[in-house]
Amino acid sequence: MPTRGSEAEPPYPRPRLIFRNKVIGSPIPVGNFPMAFGNFIQPPPKFAGTPGKANCHGQSVSALAKQYGGLNNAAAALGYPSVSALQNAIMEFCGA
Q1: Dihedral Cα 95, 69, 63, 86, nearest 10 deg
Q2: Do residues 49 and 58 lie in contact, with contact meaning Cβ atoms separated by under 8 Å?
Q3: Cβ atoms of residues 49 and 59 within 8 Å
Q4: 76: Cβ–Cβ under 8 A, 6 or more apart, which residues?
Q5: DSSP secondary structure letters along 1-14
Q6: Taking a C-beta distance cutoff of 8 angstroms, is the pair 12, 5 a contact?
Q7: Which of 18, 70, 75, 90 is the most exposed place for a label (fewest CB within 10 A)?
Q8: pLDDT tens, 33-81?
Q9: Is the pTM of this model over 0.85?
Q10: 9: which residues sit within 8 A by CB, 6+ positions away?
Q11: Torsion of CA 29, 35, 41, 42, to 10 degrees
């Protein structure tokens, strides 16, 4: 039988691990499907225009229309519920 500290045994006692199916406390209810409530922190959107400049809104709208083939497509691709919501985000970005 090997002695402690030899190559066959580590110099420390091996812990005994016992796993049991035991719930401690009340489980957290999660529902029947994945769902998130509330707003998650997102970085502010960035658009092509320069905030504070008079042509910021126009440059941003033009760039999005060219890139996505129209504002309807841009709003959908960027996750806005409508073109109006996209326009509001652009105005907020530009500081209007």
Answers
A1: 10
A2: yes
A3: yes
A4: none
A5: -PPTTSSSS-SSPP
A6: no
A7: 18
A8: 666 666 666 677 789 999 999 999 999 999 999 999 999 999 999 999 9
A9: no
A10: 2, 3
A11: 160
DSSP state of 95: T
DSSP 37-82: -SPPP-PPP--SSPTTSTTHHHHHHHHHHHHHTSHHHHHHHHT-SS
| Residue 61 contacts residue 55 (beta carbons within 8 Å) | no
Cβ within 8 Å of residue 4, ≥6 positions away:
10, 11
- DSSP for residue 22: -
CB 74 within 8 A of CB 68: yes
